[in-house]
């Protein structure tokens, strides 16, 4: 699992894996300002409202958050694929023992990349509509 942190003025920001939804202080997250509407980021609303600098409240660039989120989803997809393969092998061996040899073919095959791409597109669309 990947986590993000940055150092600002010698203080280390809190690690926030993936796309943050709240800061460690419990306050929500903002992702844009009128001064810089084209460079999106996630920032603790409390820290942003007080214009805090060198603090340990959440700050994360959107592109880094998406990259972290994709890596987490990719790891989850890999783990699920391994589990599915294990379950298929278990079912196959149990059915061979009870009924003799039998071939099971998957009816639908969706790659992990397709799932990740769909999730990233949906998250991107939802974020930019806000």
Descriptive notes:
Residues 63-97 form a coiled coil. This is Zinc finger GRF-type domain-containing protein. The chain crosses the membrane at residues 110-128. It comes from Brassica campestris. The chain is mainly α. The protein has a domain at 29-97. It contains three helices and five strands; from the N terminus they run E-E-E-E-H-E-H-H. A three-stranded antiparallel sheet has the order 3-4-5. The relative contact order is 0.14. Residues 1-10 have low confidence and may be disordered.
Which characteristics define this entry?
3 helices, transmembrane helix, transmembrane, three-stranded antiparallel sheet, 5 strands, coiled coil, 47% helix, Zinc finger GRF-type domain-containing protein, mainly alpha, 130 residues, membrane
- Beta-strand fraction estimate: 5-15%
Instruction: From the alpha carbons, calculate the radius of gyration and give it in angstroms.
Output: 21 Å
Order of helices and strands: EEEEHEHH
Question: Distance N terminus to C terminus?
Answer: 27 Å
The stretches of 5 or more residues where confidence is low (pLDDT under 50) are 1-10
- What summary fits the major beta sheet? 3 strands, antiparallel
Q: Give a count of the beta strands, DSSP E runs of length 2 or more.
A: 5
Strand order of the main beta sheet, please? 3-4-5
Shape: elongated
Question: What is the gist of this entry?
Answer:
This is Zinc finger GRF-type domain-containing protein. By secondary structure, the protein is mainly alpha-helical. The chain is 47% helix and 10% strand.
């Amino acid at each position: 699992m990947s986590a993000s942190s940055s150092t600002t003025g010698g203080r280390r920001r809190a690690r926030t894996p993936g796309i943050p939804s709240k800061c460690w202080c419990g306050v929500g997250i903002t992702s844009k300002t009128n001064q810089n509407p084209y460079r999106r980021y996630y920032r603790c609303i409390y820290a942003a409202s007080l214009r805090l600098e060198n603090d340990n409240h959440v700050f994360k660039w959107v592109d880094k958050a998406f990259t972290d989120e994709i890596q987490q989803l990719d790891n989850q997809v890999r783990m699920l694929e391994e589990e599915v393969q294990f379950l298929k092998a278990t079912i196959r061996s149990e059915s061979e023992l009870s009924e003799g040899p039998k071939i099971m073919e998957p009816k639908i095959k969706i790659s992990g990349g397709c799932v990740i791409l769909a999730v990233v597109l949906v998250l991107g669309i939802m974020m930019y509509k806000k």
